[in-house]
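Dear Dr. H.,

I hope your travels went smoothly. While you were away I took the liberty of generating a structure for the chain from your last submission, since the lab meeting agenda had it listed for discussion. I wanted you to have the full record in hand beforehand rather than looking at slides cold. The sequence, exactly as received, is reproduced here:
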Amino acid sequence: MSIKLTPAERSELRAEAHALKPIVIIGEAGLTPSVMKEIGNSLDSHGLIKVRVFGDDREARIAMYEQICTEQNAAPVQHIGKLLVVYRPKLEGVKVTKLVRGGAGLREVTIVKPSPSGTKRPTVSKVLVKGNERVTQGGNIKRAKPRQSSVKKTSKT
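The corresponding predicted structure, in token form, is as follows:
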């Protein structure tokens, strides 16, 4: 379990999870690779999920909970009865929204960066990008390389 939550963060996540319905259901086969893959996909898209475990063995549920958290690099939030609540911050990238000024070549880009700790809200900033600039995967703005000129055209003298 690499993500550590403070009691205040855990309490806030429990409040958020109250209204959620279980996304993944673990049956009598237990934690199969396909179930772990589905839990990983759900954590990527939602961040905070509920998992329902069918089975009466409490120690087996606790072992499954710990295995899910260690393999998925997630934080345990709550374990009540047969419901497990798991949290992993969503990975968010760069979203290009729209053109601001039609012919000017400027566009507005929304950059969403996750917090360094992974437990706080992501930082959102809106930036105007020129036509010869691009936004990298990390959210930095880079200029396009200058256009190459022909060697033949420059050597004629």
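Two observations you may find useful: Confidence is low (pLDDT under 50) at residues 96-102. DSSP finds four helices and nine strands in the chain.

With kind regards,
E. W.
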